[in-house]
Each structure stands twice: as C-alpha cells, then as structure tokens.
Write a structure and sequence with these properties.
Blueprint: H1 2-18, E1 20-26, E2 41-47, H2 48-53, E3 61-65, E4 73-81, E5 85-86, E6 96-97, E7 102-106, H3 116-119, E8 122-123, E9 127-136, E10 142-143, E11 154-155, H4 159-163
Antiparallel strand pairs: 1-2, 2-9, 3-4, 3-9, 4-7, 5-6, 5-11, 7-8, 9-10
Length: about 180
C-alpha cells in the first residue's frame, strides 16, 4: 500500500500543478460572481492548462500573481488582451493600449477591487489559471457567468477607436479610418 501511495503522489502533484486544482477564494472584489455575500468563501475549479497554453479569452475569470504584493494571488476578470485599448473604469484620462503579451484585469465589484485600473496592464506570464466553475457551496455550484466588456470601454485599433475620440482623435496616416 505504501508503494502505491508513493507512486500516486507524484502523479497527483503533477496533475494539480499543471492541469487542474481546487482553490478557496475570499474577498469582495468579484462580488456577486464569487462570494455573493461579505465573509463568504467559495471553492472554485482552476484550469491550469489554459495558463500554460495561453488559451484565454476576454471575459474569462483568471487567477493572477499579484503585481503589487509578492506571493499573493488575485482573482479577476480578463477584460482586454494585447493590442486592445481600454478606457479606465472611472472614464478619466486617455485610453490605455494594452501591450502585446499583457492583459487588463478587473474585479466585478469596482468599488472593492484593486486591479488594472490602479496598476495597469499585467504580463500574461503572471496568469496562473483560468477559473472554470464554482464547486462549493453546492447551492452555487456551476460554471461562471461569462461577461463581455462593453464596447465603450474596450476596443481594438481601427475605426471604432477613432470614432470614440481616442488618442487625440487623430487617425493614423495609413487610412485606417
């Protein structure tokens, strides 16, 4: 029996490090998607394979190494990918171009979220997993709601960007208008 456990342990560790694992999430930045009530804790299933393969989409909920607190992880919604322009949630300032290889992350509860609106784009290499579903409490178990970002906040370069008056409202000279 000890030999069986010794053989299985490396397989389980490899699976949870590279494929999927469970995580307990606390905090209010993703309310009501995660932890609908203050003080709640939710257990979620994490897809680590997506982080390794870069299979992300706008609207995914992801786990990211905190860009401001070493050793901490944050759970946020992926709002934009490299090449997208983002208007900050407060609507102030010029749109931000998300650099290639980066993403823009935000909490679903803007009043309680410390996110890209504060610290800017995050390297995709800091994304460690994609959240597949909630598994606990059982009454909330199921896939996460996918939310598209309003086109008034996130857009790709080209016609829509210039129509919204981005970057001084001067279109590029190559006729991309």
């Amino acid at each position: 029996m000890a030999l069986g456990a010794a053989t299985a342990a490396p397989l389980v560790i490899a699976f949870t490090d590279n494929v999927a694992t469970l995580a307990c999430c606390e905090g209010r930045s993703m309310q009501p998607t995660i932890n609908p009530r203050a003080g709640d804790a939710t257990i979620v299933l994490l897809d680590k394979w997506s982080a390794r393969s870069g299979a992300f989409s706008r609207g995914d909920v992801v786990i990211v190494n905190s860009p401001t607190q070493d050793g901490n992880l944050v759970l946020k919604r992926l709002i934009a990918l490299g090449g997208d322009y983002v208007k900050k949630a407060n609507g102030r300032g010029e749109p931000v171009l998300v650099p290639k290889g980066h993403c823009w992350i935000e909490g679903d509860n803007p009043a309680m979220s410390h996110d890209s609106n504060s610290f800017g784009p995050v390297p995709l290499a800091m994304v460690t997993a994609r959240v597949l579903c909630k598994v606990w409490p059982v009454s909330q178990a199921g896939p996460l709601e996918r939310r598209d970002t309003p086109p008034s906040r996130v857009w790709r370069p080209g016609r829509d960007f210039w129509a919204l008056g981005g970057a001084g409202a001067e279109p590029p000279s190559d006729g991309a208008r």
